[in-house]
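Troubleshooting: if your tokenizer reports a length mismatch, compare against these two reference records.
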Amino acid sequence: MRLIFFIIFSTYVSCYAQNITIKGKAHASHIGKEVVLSDYTDYITYNITKESSDTIDKDGYFELKLQSKNTKPILINIHNLVGKIYVQPNFVYGIYFPAEDSTANNQEGTETTVDISVYGKDSTELNALIIDFNTQYNNLFINSTDKYLSPAKLNTLLDTFLITSKKRYKNIKNPYFKNYLEYSFANFFSSTSRSKTLLNKLFIDKKAIQYTNFEYMQFFNAHFKGYLKAYASTKNGGSIYNSINAFADYKDLQNQLKGDKSIENDTLRELLILKGLIDFYYSPDFDKKQVQSVIEQLYRETRVQAHKNIAFNMLQTIYQLQPGAQAPDFIAYNKAGQSVNLYNYRGKYIYLNFFSSESETSQKEMQKIIDLKKKFNDKVTFISVCLDDSVKTYKAYLKSNPKQDWIILHQTQNSTAKQNYNIKTLSGFFFINHQMQLAQSPALMPSEGIEYKFNALFRPRKKNTIIGVR
């Protein structure tokens, strides 16, 4: 039955709870692994959220679902392999997820990009159009006889390519692709140092802000990169530092930016403030708490829903996993297949780590935890979460490492540990106090000296023997 559905590739479907369906076939090397569909929360923070997942069956098939009213790129990953396709509301897609490229330089713990094939697409399907356009663009340089292209020659080449692209796609009606073309060229011209004033006039000025369009926002972010910091260094913007560091006053910051006469649109100005505040939060020139306070004010006061959503996502990033913040709970599974909650172990300090049996580095750290557990077992609960895709390799790891006798769980399809602790590589360490607050985040690894932290924290206090002093 699944094969029949797989052949119905880009068919229109009625709008149910999940209005986009992806029916996939993966290379045999992925059988039994988890495949995940992720989406961006917005195109300012670029936070990624997991929308759907499935386990690839014995024949290589899987199914993913997404609810969206917008055409957009989505990410599909298996372990550290990630690919991108574009999806439209009310469609069913058939895709093929390839094997890992053995010739690629796949460093441990890093993501590797793969090309996902979309089946059944005709020449006017969005993914087919985008592939065709990118092929034409790449051919510009493959067919060029010049070994070195000066900026002037490159701009001439792009201008000619713009004309030929308009002719090539003149009969295409897909509105997203039209926009894709326009802002792909905007990005090209931005990278070739075209006049910012001209680019602003052509692609930004007097145009609606396209918050949900990936290519528009990609150009927007490149065009206004470092804008707020650059303006703060000007004569008119010099008080921006005081607006944030001294007063943490959002309205004062707004007023400071009104001195820039090139930005007349209040909505655009507020979006630029949001974008700049992300950079300021991680800048040593600004007080993190003051920046956070300004973002919170903007979140409360903005009348633009898209800005409220972006500010909310920013605050989530700031609040999450900060030392002193509440440790996120999660569900993972033990070797018996039973679900286990982190909060089951409240009451003692917890040393939490993530590891993979495929990672030599994280395995070395696991060996070092053996001695830590012997010394601090009465004070600290040691919990490890295995990131292996396969339950079989997880159980094999436990069997071959009997000295690792603490709580070792597994991140399966329904687990939330990896997501809740924002684990991007094959390891991670957190130290949680008895009140379930993050005492160290990230925590020192055993090889980095977490033992010294434990010694300082749990060292017995000697009674004071000096008379008159308690």
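Reference record two:
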Amino acid sequence: MNIDRRMITAMVTPMLLSGEVDLGACAELARILVQQGSEGLVVTGTTGESPTLSNEEKQSIWKSVKSAVGPEVAIIAGATNYSTKESIAGAEAALSAGADAILLTVPYYNKPTQAGLYEHFKAIASAVPLPCILYNVPSRTSLNMTAETTIQLSEVSNIVGIKEASGNLDQIARIINKTEDNFKVWSGNDADTLSVVALGGYGVISVASHFVSKQIKEMIDFLLKSDLKSANHINGQLITLYDALFQESNPIPTKWALNHLGFQAGKPRMPLMDPSQNTKKILVSELNKFDIKFYKKN
């Protein structure tokens, strides 16, 4: 599948009160997100609480979500970790489960060199025929993948883009300017989407799109038409919601917000917990600014 999706949602993983994965709710949430405008879904990524999910749970989630949304919606599987061997096995499992692409997250904790990153990602991409999207998120991994490493990896045939969450616009601009046009750069931070797309980036892999996908898509459309004023106006309406959703570690605020709006997403798995009362108050204030009806039960 060609992963030409500008507005992709990094989806939470709904769970039952028992703490087990709620596969039915995973499928339901995926369908809602697509109905509201998401063109692709990152499943079992950071927002999906991947560090606490077993391999068996991940495979079940991939299968459930792909079955729910059908062949036209790209399912991008968060299947990798800090072990090259385990990441290859995860990518192969995602392929078997019907995923359309693999998210290749910069390894955390063991902090490889840039040469190690290159070899790690090249080995995973070589093991599966699926498109692969790099994910650079130094705030999570304590390691930045440089523009030079990303540019080098863009030459691997099935590494088709990057979710860039470094917040370093100079680095992101260098990647955009030094890679081929078919290598796509998605903003990995909602608050950076306006800047990244204005620089020539392709789109966003978003958390806020659980709630305001229509507005985000409109903002991107204005940017593609070179209407920066209109895009900036929408961004100005969204920026405090972005802040609220990252008031505490993602996906703590997003899961609580979904529950608040009527969708039973469950609690985060330990060691994550429900948000503080102050964060809840901020979230309610921000969510009330938008007409969000699509999670309410009839």
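Descriptive notes for reference record two:
- The chain has one domain: 7-225.
- Strands lie at 7-10, 40-43, 74-78, 101-105, 132-136, 159-164, 184-187, 203-206.
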